[in-house]
């Protein structure tokens, strides 16, 4: 796995919410992978239309989608690609969330 290229797309699970240390960071570090994180907190699989996204757009915050992340990715072909299937939570955080270290065990 050493020096293999990994791309990560998705939402806060991949980006890491407030600490920007997501679920793939420790994996890439443990195995010496080159990791390119394109994930964005709050991202959705389906592009969000102004009349259908109550939280972010009503506050003037654009809601990014995974397709835009893929379009922004480098043209280099990765060895591994992780695509977070959906935004795990609705909204921008939830009660009880806490910052956790990337140094967690795998």
Describe the protein's topology.
Blueprint: E1 5-9, H1 12-15, H2 25-31, E2 34-37, H3 54-58, H4 66-72, E3 80-83
Parallel strand pairs: 1-2, 1-3
Pick out its properties.
12% strand; globular; 3-stranded parallel sheet; 22% helix; alpha/beta; disordered C terminus
Q: How are the strands of the biggest sheet laid out side by side? A: 2-1-3
Rg for CA atoms: 15 Å
Number of helices, where a helix is a run of at least 4 consecutive DSSP H or I residues = 4
> Pairing-aware structural class of the strands and helices?
alpha/beta
Total beta strand runs: 3
User: H/E series, N to C?
Assistant: EHHEHHE
Helix content: 10-25%
The amount of beta strand, in percent, is 5-15%
Instruction: Give the distance, in angstroms, between the N- and C-terminal Cα atoms.
Output: 15 Å
Largest sheet: 3 strands, parallel
The number of domains is: 1
Pick out the low-confidence regions: 88-106
């Amino acid at each position: 796995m050493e020096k293999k290229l990994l791309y990560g797309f998705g939402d806060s699970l991949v980006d890491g919410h407030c600490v920007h240390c997501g679920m793939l960071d420790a994996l890439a570090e443990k195995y010496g992978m080159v990791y390119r994180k394109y994930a964005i907190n709050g991202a959705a699989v389906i592009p969000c239309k102004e009349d259908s996204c109550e939280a972010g757009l009503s506050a003037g915050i654009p809601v990014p989608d995974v397709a835009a992340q893929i379009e922004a990715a480098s043209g280099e072909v990765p060895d591994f690609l992780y695509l977070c299937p959906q935004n795990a939570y609705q909204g921008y955080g939830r009660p009880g969330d806490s910052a956790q270290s990337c140094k967690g065990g795998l």
